Amino acid sequence: MLWFGQPGPGSWNGKCLCPFPLPRGQRPRFPQVNEVVFSPGESHCATCSEDGSVRVWSLASMELVIQFQVLNQSCLCLAWSPPCCGRPKQQRLAAGYGDGSLRIFSVSRTAMELKMHPHTAALTAVAFSTDGQTVLSGDKDGLVAVSRPCTGMTFRVLSDHQGAPISTIDVTHKECGDLGVEGTDLWLVASGDQRVSVWASDWLQNHCELVDWLSFPTPAATETQGQLPPSLAAFCPWDGALLMYVGPGVYKEVIIYNLCEKQVVEKIPLPFFAMSLSLSLSTRLLAIGFAECMLRLVDCATGTTQDFAGHDNAVHLCRFTPSARLLFTAARNEILVWEVASC
Predict the structure, then answer these.
(1) Which residues form the WDR90 4th beta-propeller domain (predicted)?
(2) Is the pLDDT of residue 27 over 80?
């Protein structure tokens, strides 16, 4: 599932992005990797694939330690639970499948704890609330379900994006009074029709409120060869008032939107439409993958960019570890693990 590539080291604004050495021999072939997520302590990562597998890997040794397998289903999305009240043994994985089912796996007990069926269509995005007690899931028909793993019940369904597949669900903690609305969580949903909704919620109080709604224009079919790239959005880790968006638009760019000012405050031009997006939690780094087999890193503090090659297919997934020490990129059935270190 994981192999270590050597596209060639590169220096970039005082940073060095150096891939691990590639073992001799042919690259292994596995089903397409759809998601990579990391444990809160960054000791492990988990991947999900088209063959219905969820695999947990040790980041220290890059060895497979746990595998959960569901037959005759594709696992399309995955989330690792946040740290809950200092109880690391309660770490869980939420996995979404092509038949609309949502499964909760216990990492410590290496067992499936719960199977739910909150959707009738394939799940395309999943995320935990900041307290880990609620799971948000989105499907290819544009519905978002809110469920509680402790009871197995889905207690809310949002249809605001109905008609377009959900491509992103991102959740962050909200301080009391932020944006002038109640709630402990701030979360967003991006869908394939270039729309992003932002919500504030307190699920223990059954409170959910729409904060903002963004719509972006669709480019001409000739710009995308008739196939639209995904609409992706994420909250900015180093500035809670900002979110970043990439998707099919009039221009190839990263759009930075200020939730307090309710306006676009910056645009970063790109050479191609983005296929994947990741923001570093500890540094102001932005990783973007393209269908043209290229990875771009952007230093948002200075605006410096550098491009890297290494994959043979579209870079449909890129994920920083929480410390930003490593960057995982995926193209179909292969993963490159990059080390991000000071030069």
Answers:
(1) 32-342
(2) no
User: Quick check: is 42 in a domain?
Assistant: yes
Does any domain span residue 61?
yes
107-145 pLDDT per residue, tens = 999 999 999 999 999 999 999 999 999 999 999 999 999
Look at residue 5 in the predicted model and tell me its pLDDT: 37
Supply the CATH number for residue 136's domain.
2.130.10.10
Domain membership of residue 64 (yes or no) is: yes
Question: What is the token pair recorded at 311?
Answer: 């994959």
Residues 6+ apart with CB under 8 A from 16: 9, 10, 340, 341, 342, 343
CA atoms of 88 and 77, how far apart (whole Å): 22
pTM, two decimals, is 0.89
Q: Kindly report the CA angle at 228 between 225 and 233, in degrees rounded to 5?
A: 145
Is the distance from CB of 291 to CB of 259 less than 8 angstroms? no
Confidence (pLDDT) at 219: 67
Number of domains in the chain: 1
**Are 290 and 272 spatial neighbours (Cβ–Cβ below 8 Å)?**
yes
- Residue 13 within any structural domain of the chain: no
Residue 53 CA to residue 251 CA, distance in Å, equals 37
* Residue 155 lies in domain: 31-159
pLDDT range class, residue 281, cuts 50, 70, 90: confident
Q: Is 322 exposed, middle or buried (0-12, 13-18, 19+ CB in 10 A)?
A: middle
SS3 call for 144: strand
Output DSSP code: residue 154.
E
Count the alpha carbons within 13 Å of 63 in the hemisphere toward its beta carbon: 3
The tokens describing 197, both together, are 């909704």
Tell me which H or E stretch contains 38. strand 33-38
Per-residue buried b or exposed e for 327-340, using 16+ beta carbons within 10 Å of the residue's own CB: bbbbbbbbbbbbeb
pLDDT at 195 > cutoff 80: yes
Q: Which tokens in the block code for residue 84?
A: 């809950």
